[in-house]
Amino acid sequence: DFSTRVTYKGNDEIGSLATAINNLSSTLERYQTNRNEFFANITHELKTPLTYIKGYTQALKKGLYQSEEEKNNYLMIIENETTQMNNLMDDLMDLSKIEEGKLNLHMEDIDLIEVIDMVINKVKIKANQKGIDVVFNSPSHGALINADGQRMEQIFTNLLENATRYTEQGTIQVTIINELQGIKISIVDTGIGIAEEDLPYLFDRFYRVDKSRSRSNGGTGLGLSIVKKLVEIHDGTIEVQSTLGKGTTFILYFPIDLNE
Ligand code: ADP
C-alpha cells in the first residue's frame, strides 16, 4: 500500500528523509494507478471485438440473416474484428518490448526518402480513394541517416495512416529537409484537426479523441505512443501542432552523428 505517508515535518535530515519517502510513495501510487488503468484499457479493447465476434457468430449459427448479402456482412464484421485484435496484439508486443528496453534496433545507413516513398505508395491507394492528394517534397541529394529502416517505416506508416484516417478532403504533404545537424520531416494534413485541450494527451497510451472513428478505421489508440517511443530511441523528437477543423502537423527531427 503506497498511500501511507510519513507525517514527520521538520527542517532536519529526518524531515528531508520523510519528504523523500512521501514523494516516492506518490510516484509509486501514480505508477500503480497507471498500471491498473492500462490493464483495464487492454481488457476493454479486447472485450469489444470479442463481443462482436461472439454476437455475429451466434447470429450466423442460428441463421439470423435475411439475405446472402447480410450474411456476408456479418462475416466481414467478424473478419474486421479479428484484424482489430491482431493490430492490438502487435502494438502491445511492440510497447512492452520498447518499455523493457528489449527492442533490438538494426541500425544501418538508410535514405529516408526511399523509406517514406515506400510508405506513401502504401497509403496512397486509401488516400486517393477518399479523394486526398499525397504530396512529397524531398531534397534532391537524399536524406541519409543511420537508423533502423523497419522502425522508420513503422513510424511513418503510423503517421501517414493517421493523416489519411483523420482527413476528409484536401492534401497530405510530406516534406523532408536536410539541416546542418539533422533531418527534419513534416507531415501536414488538412484533416479534422485536434482541439487544444486534447493535444497534451495525444501521445498517451489508448488516448483517442474520437473513439468510434479510430476503431472503425482499425486504430488501436496505441499508434502515437509507439511512434513517440520509436522516435526517442533514435534520439529524435516529435511535435504536434493542430487547429480544430483545419488540420494537423507533425514535425520530426532526427540528429545526424557528424563524427561517423
Ligand atoms: P489511433 O489508433 O486511435 O489512431 P493513435 O495513437 O495513432 O491512435 O492516435 C491517437 C488519437 O489522436 C487518434 O485516436 C485521433 O483522435 C488523434 N489523431 C492522430 N492523428 C491525427 C491526425 N492526423 N488528425 C487528427 N487527429 C489525429
Structural descriptors:
membrane; binds adenosine-5'-diphosphate; five-stranded mixed β-sheet; 51% helix; 260 residues; nucleotide-binding; two-stranded antiparallel ribbon; alpha+beta; 19% strand; 6 helices
Summary, kept brief:
The strands form 2 sheets. This protein has a 5-stranded mixed sheet, covered by helices on one side. A two-stranded antiparallel ribbon has the order 1-3. It has 6 helices and 7 strands, in the order ααβαββαββααββ. The protein has 260 residues and is α+β, with helices and mostly antiparallel strands.
Structure description:
It is found in: Cell membrane. It catalyses: ATP + protein L-histidine = ADP + protein N-phospho-L-histidine. Residues 41-258 form the Histidine kinase domain. This is histidine kinase. Helix content is 51%, strand content 19%. The protein is of the alpha+beta class and 260 residues long. The strands form two sheets. Strands 2-4-5-7-6 form a five-stranded mixed beta sheet, with helices on one face. The chain has a two-stranded antiparallel sheet with strand order 1-3. The N and C termini lie far apart (50 Å). The model has no long low-confidence stretch (mean pLDDT 94). Adenosine-5'-diphosphate is lined by residues 162-163, 166, 189, 191-192, 194, 202, 207-210, 214, 219-225, 248.
